[in-house]
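Hey, quick one: can you model this chain's 3D structure?
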Amino acid sequence: MIEKKRIAALVKQATAEGIEGDLGAVLEKAITVGDLMEVLKTFDPGTPVEVEIPVEIDDSEDMISEVGFVIDFFKSSADDKATEVLTLRACKPDLLEAFLDWEQSQEAEDESQH
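Sure thing. Here's the predicted structure for all 114 residues.
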């Protein structure tokens, strides 16, 4: 369970970044790194990690979702510990080539700045 103080800090940061929706309500249901660590212990280490994100729930209560696989993870930079998060970056199979091109351009940009 995420502490209320941490939820408030994350909501404040998200609001400043223009993120839409009720982030506080989502964070109240979100798992923590500790929860994830416990679950991961029950899987074979070679198991791929899939992400399913609902994108629409229609009047008939059917859910349309996008599915991808986690291909990267990183600690999101934060002004303080309360707004630090573990980010899992997933990619849909049909976007992998475009993602790899984007990633390569980002790496080139980072190198040119150093």
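One thing worth noting: The first strand starts at residue 50 and ends at 57.
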